[in-house]
Amino acid sequence: MSKQWYILHTYTGYEGKIERTLRSMLDAGEIDSSILTSVKVPVEEFVEIKDGKKRVKKNKFLPGYIMLEMDLPDLGWKAVCSQIRRIQGVTGFVGTNPNVRPHSITTDEAKNLLQRSGEIKGEKQIHVKQSFSVGDQVKITDGAFATFTGTVEEISPEKDKMRVMVQIFGRAAPVEVSLLQAEKIL
Question: Edge-to-edge, what's the strand order for the sheet holding 137-140?
């Protein structure tokens, strides 16, 4: 059998505790490290701008779920899975009963989840927690148009950008800025 990713369902808020428990079981040799090779709690980073300060925070985008990379043997899988299910806070593997071998997720699903959490090499995605809406008055704090004020006309959260209408030389002009380059005027 080859390594595949499985989704473990847990009580919400117990993800970190269960991850630490699984890692300590691996370190103690209670679970074979050739069977359970990786434990990940899917989190994504986002930037929150509050009171003019930028803070990078982590957010679980799948609360109540943990990703496990396992190489389940054809014989003996039941002992490993029941040992994992017995951990306090674990409700089971997604999509299966306790007497049935767990179903793995597809490689595309695993790749998407790992990319979103920044685990796969490449461009790490950091999203901005949006606190702007169309019509808000904003002050541009960074870039070529720093200190200009204007009105938000359009927001593109997928690109983390927005278009702001500012006054340049007495004329209204649209300027595209990153969500990190502006702050709301209260």
Answer: 171-178, 161-168, 149-156, 137-140, 182-184
Sheet of 43-50, strands arranged across: 53-60, 43-50, 126-128
148: which 2 tokens? Answer: 């200009």
Residue 69 has pLDDT above 80, yes or no: yes
- Measured CA to CA, the distance from residue 23 to residue 31 in angstroms comes to 9
Backbone angles phi, psi at 165, to 5 degrees: -90, 115
User: How far apart are alpha carbons 169 and 171 in whole angstroms?
Assistant: 6
pTM beyond 0.90 = no
Tell me the CA distances in angstroms from 183 to 61, 79, 147, 171, 178, one per residue in order: 25, 55, 11, 22, 11
